[in-house]
Amino acid sequence: MKELSAREVWRAALGELQLQLDKPIFETWLKQTEGVNFDNSRFVVEVPTPFAIAWLERRLYQDIQKTVEKVTGHVLDIQFQVKSGELAPGELASPEISPLANGAAQDSPADAAGVNGGRVPPTMDPLAETTQTNGHASNFVFNPKYTFDSFVVGPSNRLAFSAAQAVADAPGHGYNPLFLYSGVGLGKTHLLYAIGRTCAAKGLSVLYVSSEQFTNDFISAIRNRTTEEFRSRYRSVEVLLIDDVQFMSGKEQTQESFFHTFNDLHSSGHQIVLTSDRPPRALPLLEDRLRSRFEWGLIADIQPPDLETRMAILSAKAEELKIDLDESIIELVAKRVQKNVRELEGSLNRLAAHSRMMNLPITLEATSNILDDLTADTARHSIDPERIIEEVSHHFRVTDHELLGRGRTKKVAQARQVAMYLLMYELEMSPTQVGRLLGGRDHATVIHGAGKINGEINEDNQLRQEVLTIKEAIFT
Ligand code: ADP
Ligand code: MG
Q: What is the pLDDT of residue 276?
């Protein structure tokens, strides 16, 4: 029988692997590889980057070895080496890593599990959650709403968007860290999730945490004497996404710990993405050495969108909500609501709810009235109900999904009642509205739940403190 060349063996193996592995994994890690050499003990594969070597050895070694065995009939040691003339780690974007479509993670187990708010309870070990089959390593579910595709790009956010995409295309190889900053509701978390989602689809282990969660994790690690686990957990991720780092201000020990985490990840060529409400130089009470780390990579800001972008965002959201809006209405809303995208979304939701409730088409006049109401409201409460849900879930460490769902564990039930209380008493929403927002509950349930909390906070110090903490987070 004719001897197969390394090239032919590898091509056959790739054919097999392509069938076994998820497409994004295959495309990212194997497509650009070549079989270059083999003897009766080892098989040498060339890959584009050192990072790919580390990844393949860790995640796919056995799959590859078995497949090569199938083709050659021998158990061979697989050795990876970097193609000559390729980039060293830390150099700029590797063209070898192909950008992936956002939908690429469509059939990953994480997606099948459904939506959660994107929050990992800090008690949950993200690595324990990691699925190892087929090289999967997504450690949590990203909100499917937040993708690059659904992000409307305009002059105010183009730099941040491109940087986020570049990072997602070649994590650890370009801007590291990427630091995004903006006022609230302008898309930082959206972009962070989009990066996470794209990277997770490539099989990278991704960890998203708010800086408060990082702090809480750190504190409980100290309390429980599990700092070793804490360290190894954070330092083993390939893409670390830290949201709202401004909350690390003044927390010296947390900053110190994060400084070391940062250095470890960065020196291993792992990607770090940070968001904040202001640029590093304007963060108060931040250690200088951490500030300077934040400035190492690329800093990109997001400005409030101009009129045209606001209109484009409204059109996109209207389409998503499947409501038909006349151009003149879109323009009216975009002209009146200027502050941020969250508010734009809120207005649109209001319009949609109104027309559904009244069973009327959305006219220019109705829009104008609703916007008047809204402006009057927001002067007093510029708070989006979603924000309350988000904050309550966050505080009680339940997912939005659980909060809106049917589960009745004590923790979930209490979180839900606190949400009812805040929506009713702070936002002055009607029990019916609250019920609708909280997964379709009837108004009696809401009145009961909100009333219960309203009574209990007078007696229960801890509960009162908790509600206060949430209120502070929401209203400041
Ligand atoms: P931030 O984290 O900056 O406070 P978010 O990422 O939470 O803001 O964005 C608030 C809301 O606005 C989200 O629902 C997000 O999807 C939406 N959003 C923000 N910017 C855009 C954009 N450019 N295109 C589409 N949606 C956007
Ligand atoms: Mg955010």
A: 96
Ligand 1 mean position, distance from CA 365 (Å): 28
How high does pLDDT run on average in the chain?
A: 82
pLDDT tens for residues 186-237? 999 999 999 999 999 999 999 999 999 999 999 999 999 999 999 999 999 9
Please tell me the number of the ligand nearest to residue 183's CA: 1
Cβ–ligand 1 distance for 187 under 6 Å, the answer yes
CB atoms within 5 A of ion ligand 2 belong to 188-189
**Edge-to-edge strands of the sheet including 77-82?**
34-38, 42-47, 77-82
- Kind and range of the H or E element at 456? helix 443-459
Q: Which of 283, 275, 281, 269 has the alpha carbon at shortest distance from 300?
A: 275
The CA-based angle 134-135-139, given to 5 degrees, is 115
Half-sphere exposure of residue 447: CA atoms within 13 angstroms, side-chain side? 6
If one residue of 161, 186, 191, 208 were mutated to test the ligand 1 pocket, choosing by the most ligand atoms within 8 A of its CB, it would be 186
Which whole number is the average pLDDT over 165-176?
93
Is the CB of 164 inside a 6 Å radius of any atom of ligand 1? no
Give one DSSP letter per residue of 222-233, joined into a string: HHTT-HHHHHHH
Number of helices and strands (H, E) in the chain? 22, 8
* Any ligand 1 atom below 6 A from CB of 151: yes
For the chain, the maximum distance between any two Cα atoms, rounded to a whole number of angstroms, is 86
Pairing assessment for the beta strands 42-47 and 34-38 based on DSSP bridges? antiparallel
Residue-wise pLDDT tens digits, 418-446: 999 999 877 878 888 899 899 889 988 99
**Distances from the Cα of 183 to the Cαs of 140, 212, 302, 355, 388, in angstroms?**
26, 18, 8, 31, 18
Which pLDDT tens digit goes with each residue over 114-161?
A: 333 333 333 232 332 333 323 333 445 667 789 999 999 999 999 999
Cβ atoms within 10 Å, residue 386: 14
116, 389 in Cβ contact below 8 A?
no
* Separation of alpha carbons 50 and 36, rounded Å: 17
Q: What are phi and psi of 321, to 5 degrees?
A: -80, 0
For ligand 2, the distance from its centroid to the CA atom of residue 441, given in whole angstroms, is 28
Is the distance from CB of 210 to CB of 247 less than 8 angstroms? yes
pLDDT, residue 377, reads 60
Identify the CA nearest to 336 among candidates 381, 358, 363, 369: 369
Q: How confident is the model at residue 277 (pLDDT cuts 50, 70, 90)?
A: very high
Q: What percent of the chain has pLDDT over 90?
A: 47
Percentage helix, strand, coil for the chain under 3-state DSSP, each rounded to 5? 55, 10, 35
